[in-house]
Specification:
The protein is of the alpha+beta class. It has three domains: 132 residues, no CATH class; 98 residues, Signal transduction histidine kinase, dimerisation/phosphotransfer (DHp) domain (Helix Hairpins), CATH 1.10.287.130; 149 residues, Heat Shock Protein 90 (2-Layer Sandwich). The protein is built from nine helices and ten strands. It has a five-stranded mixed sheet, covered by helices on one side. A three-stranded antiparallel sheet has the order 1-3-2, with helices on one face. It is elongated, with a radius of gyration of 42 Å. The chain starts with a helix and ends with a strand.
């Protein structure tokens, strides 16, 4: 995480550095444009004065018009030609007020335009003209900065996502290793006892050790099957065997072994099957696993005495299944991620619960494969409600 923060700091420092250099570049471009315009205006005015103020005669109106037209003609050669006003000044005391950078003064030689000492050119909207002359460069610079900012943000976001995925994969590997060790160790011990000729075992004990091996082997098989199911989803190879099945019967059948666990913890399982017609096309095996998975989670994440309910309803063209508990609940910020592969909510009691972050991913993929939907309503310390909708037809 520290390396990611350092990378983030470096990239944003580079981004601000580039932004600063772009601002300097725009400012230099502005000054260069100002210099070029000033030189061009000087040449235009000098040419006009030399052409129309070459006598000692007083400067009449016609000559003034000719000078102005000559200057305008010269300025028309610019990509952006500003409007201006021309004023004749009869004194050498020229007021060059810095508050008016748009005013330019040009002295006239004593042998030209009798009585006129200088010309004042007042450029209208001078700063707007200068900015307009470099607006395309400003636009390109702004687009470059925006694109660079977007790409930097996307890059950092992708790196962060990859780090989160890697973290979840590492947690999955750690949890899977832990879960595999327990049944393997149990099988090893039980098998060593059975194979040890020095240990005398009666028929009942032999059968008990054989049952332990069988149970732990089934546990291993379930772990491997879950991982294989996820792999099938990722490769798009999962094939659902859809048949018309009675969901009410499925719920009643799977509830029997779950009731033993719930009653052992002095809890309660309330089943309310209100749907009018429980017969819909589903993959019995996968839907059974989905409901069992959700109920097992409800048991696992209920702190004391589990209070769990399973209900069904008929809603127009969908069959609704609701699994609700009064357990520890899910934080709002985690709800949108709980169906992501490997994701496990950062609950304060989470570390006490085993799991791989695959169960709800599996649930979501199965419901999606049935063209259904699953939604979650949850509050911390109040419980969770999983709402499944399956199409009836």
């Amino acid at each position: 995480m520290n390396s990611f923060r350092k990378l983030k700091a470096i990239l944003f420092s580079l981004l601000f550095g580039i932004l600063f250099l772009q601002c300097i570049w725009i400012y230099d471009a502005y000054k260069e444009q100002k210099k070029q315009f000033s030189n061009h205006l000087n040449n235009s005015v000098s040419h006009a004065i030399n052409q129309y103020c070459n006598t000692h005669d007083a400067l009449n109106l016609e000559t003034q018009i000719n000078i102005k037209q000559a200057i305008r003609k010269e300025l028309l050669s610019l990509s952006e030609h500003p409007e201006f006003t021309l004023k004749l000044i009869n004194t050498e005391n020229i007021n060059r007020d810095k508050k008016y950078p748009n005013r330019f003064f040009f002295p006239i030689k004593s042998n030209q335009c009798n009585g006129i000492k200088s010309l004042e050119i007042d450029i209208k909207a001078y700063n707007n003209y200068l900015l307009g002359a470099i607006v395309s460069w400003i636009a390109l610079s702004a687009i470059f900065i925006v694109l660079l900012s977007i790409f930097t943000t996307i890059y950092l976001r992708n790196i962060n996502i990859q780090k989160q995925i890697q973290k979840m994969k590492d947690e999955f590997t750690s949890n899977m290793t832990h879960e595999l060790k327990t049944p393997i160790s149990t099988i090893t011990v039980a098998s060593e006892i059975l194979l040890n000729e020095n240990i005398s075992l009666n028929k009942e004990k032999t059968r008990r050790y054989a049952e332990i091996i069988h149970e732990e082997n089934n546990r291993l098989k379930a772990l491997v099957d879950r991982v294989m199911q996820v792999a099938l989803f990722e490769n798009g190879k999962l094939i659902l065997n859809l048949k018309e099945e009675n969901i009410h019967q499925i719920i009643e059948d799977l509830s029997q072994p779950l009731l033993l666990i719930i009653h052992k913890r002095q809890g309660n399982l309330n089943i309310q099957l209100h749907a009018n017609n429980p017969m819909i096309n589903i993959d019995k095996s996968h839907i059974t696993n989905v409901i069992s998975n959700l109920v097992e989670n409800a048991i696992k994440y209920s702190s004391n005495h589990p209070q769990i309910s399973i209900s069904t309803n008929s809603l127009n063209s969908v069959f609704e299944i609701i699994i609700e508990d009064q357990g520890m609940g899910i934080d709002k910020k985690d709800i949108k991620h709980i169906f992501d592969k490997y994701y496990r909510a950062n609950n304060k009691n989470q570390d006490q619960k085993s799991g791989f972050g695959l169960g709800l991913f599996y649930v979501y993929q199965v419901i999606k494969g049935h063209n259904g939907s699953i939604n979650v309503e949850s509050d911390i310390n109040k419980g969770s409600k999983f709402i499944i909708h399956l199409p009836i037809a």
